[in-house]
Amino acid sequence: MSFIQTVYGLLLFYFLIGFLSFYFINRKKDKDAARKSWVKTLIYFFIINIVAGSIVFFPLVFRCISILIIIVGFYELFTLYQKSGYRLSRIFYSSVIILGVFSVFFFAYSGLNKEQIFFTFALVSIFDSFSQITGELFGKIRLLPHISPNKTVEGFIGGAIITLLSVILLKAFIDMPILKLFIFAAEIIIFAFIGDLSTSYYKRKYKVKDFSRLIPGHGGILDRFDSLIAGGAWVALASYIT
């Protein structure tokens, strides 16, 4: 079995665990909240498969998707700024610069070999998914309530542990010492988390829940891809440094 087949198989296995977890999580919610949670989960499943398929079979399509993510990301930043009556200009322009830097390297990431792209994409997806699942199941301690009130210490730790354990399962396919591989995976986790926090901070400053309604059940393109933008940007920068 190839590296990509193994990674994709692992993602599908994790999705099965995720669906089962959300079944028990959503049983405790009212019908409307449970319905929204299932819509969000199913759409996320389709997004993951569409992006994964483009990486593996149509790399040029993934490059186009990365450009689209960047363009819409800037549009969403500007839209909130505009709707606020052009308030908090320093926050807006600082965010544009930060997103601009990340976007340059994220686009570079989209041009790496598909194994690198898919590995990073898988780790970010696993971290995102299991941070939410473990957070909803076990989360009690708020991590940064003034920036992102729904994130918990338990969720971050749970997502990070499962992501790092996944690296062990993939070690046979990667020609890298295990310690170095763990460090590399930890760096991806940290940058993915930074990307997530950055967009949460921006939304909190402008007092909105979502960037847009372009993706049903999700907070917009930036909200969906913030972790991948930052994690992918780091991988591209690291590849140039080394």
Question: What report would you give on this structure?
Answer:
The chain is mostly helical and 242 residues long. It has one domain. Helix content is 79%, strand content 3%. The protein contains eight helices and two strands; from the N terminus they run H-H-H-H-H-E-E-H-H-H. It has helices at residues 3-27, 31-57, 59-83, 89-109, 114-138, 153-170, 178-205, 221-241; strands at residues 142-144, 148-152. Strands 1-2 form a two-stranded antiparallel ribbon. Helix 1 runs antiparallel to helix 2 and helix 4 (89-109) packs across helix 8. It is globular. The mean pLDDT is 91.
The total count of strands amounts to 2
N-to-C CA distance:
29 Å
What structural category characterises the helix and strand content?
mainly alpha
In the sheet with the most strands, the strands line up as: 1-2
- The total of helices stands at 8
